[in-house]
Specification:
By secondary structure, the protein is α+β, with helices and mostly antiparallel strands. The protein contains 13 helices and 38 strands.
Length: 667
């Protein structure tokens, strides 16, 4: 077998967008792979025939990233294949074109175009579509204009790109850029009349919507604001026949995270943030269709209802919640794995998957479940669930374990106060030899409310192939263990730091193969914050690589897309209520104590942990004479390590590895 190479991840296949056909016989999904030469991702729709047990490629233009089943034999998908359409789009027109293709083969044909920038779409009937699209208050209306007026308006759109006007917060969003006065708006579009009718108003940003089985009513969750977005949302029901939108929100401020029709009621999730802040795990509730008789139906349930198991081997997203029969199926993160559960209107919750690992999306129809998952050290594949038995349906990535050396995670646990268990793992070098001494890397996850598990993580496996011991854990603040475990509000850099340091001590004790003088530390986002914090509180690490980090909670408050509410929520302070507390939790305060050579990785368009966070810490270290280096990636955002351009992801991993090699391998 061969050693895993740094750029092997460019050959991996990534699956997303799983959707079962209406008759349940076919599974549609999107397959993504990298084109390093063109520095982009190639995406095509695939079909898996359940009866035949075979998968086949349906589209081949490498740009199809989503689709909707029109019927058992036909899909529609958004694409920009016509040159004239592309030119119109490039000139500034809001335009989305959809193509139709038969699963039996043949060319895709243009089905319709809509003068909106569509984000999602559902088919109501042959003439009508339910969709969300971006509404921009500053975008001129082009309908009814003469050609001369139209060209003038498009010219103005082009000129407006040279500047931004801000009059609300948040005004930008990681991965989307400036969002001032832009809203995701719900529409019904009539194909026959070529007419869009807005359901929600121009200041409501729709986060989710759900159509009932009869396609007569819609649940809508949205947040309305024109100056400052508050941490609450509103809950609506829309009657399609009567064209009536009714607010059925509860009287108290609430954050709705999902809503679904189940039986003759609505089942929804959310929380009021009163006990554990914005990251509080949601509860399940039921209500009548008119919003009355609200009842909390989940008792003793204390898990997040999403997948927070980390990996750098995904691309694209999939649904993680679906009504089928008498149940709402949903994902949970429990300890180090994702599971599929289901709940009925009586609040009975049942886990329906048993395997450990990560479930990255699923669909269910008539009780039959199919999912995209990371199982063991296998990369993403398509699976079916038969009772507790999981059946692998695709084999796109089998070659990795067949041809490449990988290291199996070894679980290591310890307890802290109140007998709380902290779990972590160690990867030995793939060519480990007893009696040899090895350098090591501590890797810290982001979030903080996410988890590490035992799934494949390319960067860690690569370092294990390069002769490093790699170790990682889920300290307090992580997901999967309930609200109290995850709650480190006002405690950043205290109990979480203690857990990580105790884990480091334990690893060094249990693995004498590690050379204690050659240990490095790295992490991204919250892991970048913790890396910055660690180097200001201990000199035990010989090198550090801080990625997309936080260095100053005061500057973060007023600059990042979540800063004005996240900082106060997580640190129990604003710059005016308790300046000293924010400064106490800021790694930059301790920069004059740092002696550890540190690499900073940051993206120019990271609006979650904005570039100045990295620049401040880098400058502080340089000012105090500490060896440091900052590598900034243009055109990338907070997701660089997970969905950045292929060449950028290669360069990122090269930068980090070369930095560690310089300080941890050169004796």
């Amino acid at each position: 077998m061969e050693n895993l190479r740094l750029d092997d991840f460019t050959r991996y296949k990534f699956l997303s967008g799983i959707k079962t056909s209406p008759n349940g016989q076919l599974i549609g999904f999107v397959l993504h792979q990298m084109d390093v030469d063109e520095n982009k991702y190639l995406s095509n729709i695939y079909i898996h025939d359940i009866k035949e047990g075979k998968s086949f490629k349906l589209t081949s233009l490498d740009e199809e990233r989503s689709f909707v089943w029109k019927d058992d034999n036909t899909l529609i998908f958004p694409a920009m294949r016509n040159k004239k359409d592309k030119d119109r789009k490039e000139k500034g027109e809001q335009l989305t074109t959809y193509y139709e293709i038969s699963i039996k083969g043949g060319e895709a044909n243009k089905a319709f175009e809509i003068p909106l920038s569509i984000n999602s779409l559902e088919i109501l009937d042959e003439e009508r579509l339910l969709l969300t699209a971006m509404y921009d208050h500053n975008y001129p209306k082009l309908d009814g204009l003469t050609n001369e007026e139209r060209e003038k308006a498009l010219k103005q759109i082009k000129e407006n790109k040279d500047y931004e006007v801000l009059d609300e917060i948040p005004f930008w969003l990681n991965g989307q850029g400036f969002t001032n006065k832009k809203r995701n708006r719900l529409y019904i579009y009539n194909l026959k009349e070529n007419k869009a009718v807005a359901i929600t108003d121009e200041y409501t940003d729709v986060s989710s919507y759900r159509l009932n089985k009869e396609k007569t009513k819609v649940i809508v969750i949205g947040t309305t604001y024109a100056d400052k977005m508050e941490l609450k949302s509103d809950f609506y029901i829309y009657d399609i026949a009567n064209d009536s939108l009714k607010d059925i929100s509860m009287e108290t401020a609430f954050r709705y995270s999902s809503g679904n029709f189940l039986g003759d009621k609505i089942i929804f999730t959310g929380h009021d943030s009163k006990f554990y802040g914005s990251n509080e795990n949601p509860n399940f509730y039921s209500m009548k269709l008119d919003g009355s008789n609200v009842e909390r139906i989940s008792k003793g349930f204390d898990f997040s209802i999403w997948n927070s198991v980390g990996s750098d081997c995904r691309y694209g997203g999939s649904q993680s919640m679906k009504v089928d029969g008498e149940y709402l199926y949903f994902s949970t993160t429990e300890w180090d794995s994702t599971f599929i559960n289901r709940i009925d209107l009586n609040g009975n919750i049942e886990r329906v998957s048993a395997g450990k690992g990560s479930i990255d999306g699923f669909d269910v129809l008539d009780g039959k479940i199919h999912f995209i998952g990371l199982r063991g050290l296998k990369l993403q594949e398509l699976y079916s669930l038969d009772g507790e038995q999981e059946i692998q349906l695709t084999h796109f990535n089998d070659w990795v374990l067949a041809d490449k050396k990988v290291s199996t995670p070894e679980r290591l646990t310890f307890t802290v106060e109140d007998n709380i268990t902290i779990e972590g793992w160690v990867l030995r070098p793939v060519d480990y030899e007893e009696g040899e001494k090895y350098p090591a890397i501590l890797d810290i996850h982001g979030g903080p409310k996410t988890v590490y598990g035992e799934v494949f993580y390319h960067e860690m496996q690569y370092w294990a192939n390069e002769g490093y011991v790699v170790f990682f854990c889920n300290p307090r603040g992580s997901d999967g263990r309930g609200n109290e475990f995850a709650d480190i509000r006002g405690k950043y850099g205290t109990i979480d730091y203690d857990d990580i340091m105790k884990f480091t001590d334990l690893v060094l004790e249990k693995y004498p193969c590690i050379d204690e003088t050659r240990v490095g530390v790295t992490g991204g986002s919250y892991g970048g914050f913790m890396t910055n914090w660690i180097i200001g509180h201990t000199n035990r690490f010989k090198a550090a690589a801080s990625q997309r980090s936080i260095s100053n909670w005061i500057s973060k408050f007023a600059t990042t897309d979540i800063g004005y509410y996240f900082v106060n929520d997580q640190n129990a302070a604003t710059p005016w209520s308790d300046y000293e507390k924010l400064w106490f939790h800021s790694p930059m305060k301790y920069a004059d104590k740092v002696t550890t050579p540190t690499l900073f990785i940051h993206s120019e368009e990271d609006y979650r942990c904005w570039l100045p966070e990295g620049i401040q810490m880098f400058t502080s270290l340089k000012y105090h004479g500490v060896e440091s280096r900052l590598c900034m990636f243009r055109g990338e955002n907070h997701e660089l390590s997970r969905s950045g351009k292929p060449k950028h992801r290669i360069r990122r991993l090269e930068e980090i590895t070369n930095w560690f090699n310089k300080y941890l391998k050169q004796l």
